[in-house]
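Aim 2, interim progress: modelling of the heme C-bound target.
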Amino acid sequence: MKNLLKPGWLSLSPLKMKLVFTGLVSLMLAFTAPVTWAEEVELDAPELACLKCHDKDGLKMKTQKGEVLPLSISTKAFATSMHSKTSCEDCHDSLDEKEHGKVPSSVSSKREFTVKMSDTCISCHKENVALFKDTVHAAMINGGSEKAATCSDCHNSHTVTSVKLVAPIDQVPCARCHEDIFKAYAKDVHGLERVAKGKTAPLCNDCHSAHEIKAAALGDALKDSCIKCHKDAAPSHEKWLPNSALHFEAVSCPVCHAPDAQRRVNLRMVDSVGGKQLLEKRGVPRFERLIKTADGKEVGLDEKELHSFLKEFNLDSDGPKAILSGRLEVRSGVQAHQLSEKSKALKDCKVCHQYGATPFQTVVLTMAGPDGRTMRHSVEKEVLGSLTATGTMKGFYAIGSTRIKLLDYLLVLVLLGVLCVPIAHLTANRLFKAKREQLKAASNKDQS
Ligand code: HEC
Ligand code: HEC
Ligand code: HEC
Ligand code: HEC
Ligand code: HEC
Ligand code: HEC
Ligand code: HEC
Ligand code: HEC
Ligand code: HEC
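Predicted structure of the complex, ligand included:
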């Protein structure tokens, strides 16, 4: 984030300010002893000087935009916060000490204030700031978003408590902006477990990593986070799901674990060398421009249109070629957070392995936008068959394609239970039969 990198953030507060506060301090000390709270945290006089005015209910001001900015800070909450040993001035270093509180301050808007104040964190939390720069929220803010989260949206500097404390789930900062997802999560298998048992069950940041949040559909980070806690997932699925590793690649976990979710095929545009999802550069909107050319009627790309889109896209790029990698996923963010207990999970192979299977009736083409968030365009479902036939598609097959007919046949064998075990059995039998006959022949020879 360029805001956080501008020179000058390291500079200490103006000396003048210090002097004035020292003056205030001596004044204060003349009348009051330092306040001590039950938790034995003592605030220094400069902080108390600020709080003398600011620990008042209803203190507020208007921004230039006309919004109300509340200005009350609770001394008690601050004294028991993780920042109790940090001075107000460490973060508020640009107040004009002579005029402050007497002359109206100028704050252009609440949003600008929040973003500007978040720049101060870097002097003490370099690691978090460095990580945060690569998140989808930071990318959105760089792109001019007023709605994405920055440090102060998720942390109240005056009341922040230790992350080791288990707060009630509705206090998770994400809930305010992702309300629908929060509501779904709160009622799913993890939300209920979190309420019942606390820290062992995941909260938003256990899966999304608050300072490393990437667009959800990008990469495998979320799947990996599931497997970090559910270490046995791969072997336990392997017991009934052939090639579970391949299924985990091609089917996102919520597809089976949110039983009522609607499913669809996502054709991700990835680079043909590293297999990574392609990311649109800021200011160079190739995806939307070329889609518009290919799909003039905006009804979804048909087979020919998709092929010409891909051809144009690759002609237009200097990097590795774009190919498609298919994945089954759920259709909305809410559905991704409606995970159920295992007895309700999807186990019926036919839901996917059958001609005309529902999950394959909706198809989208996606690429990552400049902020990492998914850009989508719909594609006609018939396209799936032709893609696999021409080899444009990597590591995925679709119902109705040439490959699926073979797979369906394999599947029937798997279902009948005659594929793996019996073959091994048969082979062993044959080997042993040969050996037995050899031995028999040898012993016959000996006898004769
Ligand atoms: C004499 C009372 C008083 C003292 C002491 C005081 N403030 Fe204020 N402060 C105010 C008032 C009044 C406003 C609102 C000004 C307005 O209405 O425009 C304000 C506004 C603010 C604002 C928001 C506007 C801005 O300029 O950023 C911040 C932040 C702030 N004070 C922090 C502090 C800090 C930190 C200290 C101690 C170093 C402090 N104040 C000391 C009275 C005071
Ligand atoms: C660790 C950094 C930090 C410390 C220490 C700190 N503040 Fe703040 N303060 C902030 C940030 C960040 C904001 C902006 C919050 C937002 O987005 O509105 C803020 C906002 C404010 C505001 C505006 C009202 C509000 O809550 O947004 C006042 C008033 C204020 N601080 C006073 C104080 C006083 C008084 C102290 C010392 C007792 C203090 N601050 C200590 C970081 C800090
Ligand atoms: C989208 C919300 C969000 C944003 C934005 C965010 N944080 Fe956090 N942060 C969290 C959550 C949630 C935790 C608690 C993690 C946990 O429980 O382990 C946390 C933990 C922390 C911690 C304590 C644990 C640690 O990792 O060191 C610090 C310090 C911190 N954040 C600072 C920052 C700073 C500085 C920024 C801005 C660069 C920032 N955060 C931006 C949500 C956020
Ligand atoms: C002058 C230094 C300083 C600045 C500036 C500062 N912090 Fe802190 N912060 C601290 C200290 C010291 C702690 C206590 C750390 C500890 O004891 O592990 C802390 C703790 C935290 C924690 C809780 C960490 C935990 O382990 O639970 C969060 C969250 C946090 N700060 C967020 C912020 C945010 C957001 C900003 C910017 C608005 C900010 N801090 C600015 C010094 C600072
Ligand atoms: C200040 C508001 C705000 C807060 C707080 C916030 N977010 Fe966001 N977040 C947004 C906005 C706006 C977007 C972009 C719109 C969207 O995708 O919903 C976004 C996008 C995201 C995305 C990418 C969505 C995609 O397209 O894949 C994820 C993941 C995300 N947030 C997770 C979180 C998590 C987890 C937290 C809490 C640790 C959090 N957010 C806190 C506003 C916020
Ligand atoms: C093809 C559907 C399908 C996919 C894909 C799938 N699961 Fe499952 N999963 C199931 C079914 C069905 C069960 C219940 C198995 C049983 O009856 O024991 C289950 C059981 C589980 C359990 C319960 C304990 C256990 O290991 O048996 C966990 C945890 C789990 N899955 C996590 C995951 C994770 C994490 C992913 C993604 C990496 C995933 N699942 C992908 C269908 C699926
Ligand atoms: C158990 C892990 C887990 C937890 C807990 C979790 N998420 Fe997610 N989240 C996911 C998965 C998986 C996806 C979907 C990824 C995909 O497309 O395959 C997702 C997707 C998202 C998206 C993108 C939605 C979209 O429109 O594409 C947002 C935003 C989001 N989560 C926010 C949150 C918030 C806020 C919370 C807490 C209330 C939360 N998540 C809790 C795993 C989790
Ligand atoms: C922080 C650890 C953690 C993460 C991350 C996590 N889970 Fe869980 N999960 C749990 C706990 C704890 C439970 C409840 C106890 C149990 O059944 O194992 C649970 C329960 C489940 C269950 C129900 C199991 C049953 O026995 O009925 C499923 C399914 C599941 N998780 C899937 C997932 C998926 C999919 C993801 C990733 C999107 C994920 N989990 C991420 C900890 C986690
Ligand atoms: C949610 C949809 C879904 C369910 C349910 C499902 N599969 Fe699959 N399966 C797929 C997808 C998608 C692939 C394609 C993977 C690829 O080619 O990249 C696949 C691939 C396969 C393969 C080919 C593996 C290989 O090595 O190439 C077999 C065999 C298979 N599935 C058997 C089963 C069986 C048996 C079940 C039920 C126990 C089942 N599947 C349940 C979606 C599903």
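The CA atoms of residues 190 and 362 lie 28 Å apart. The chain has a mean pLDDT of 81.
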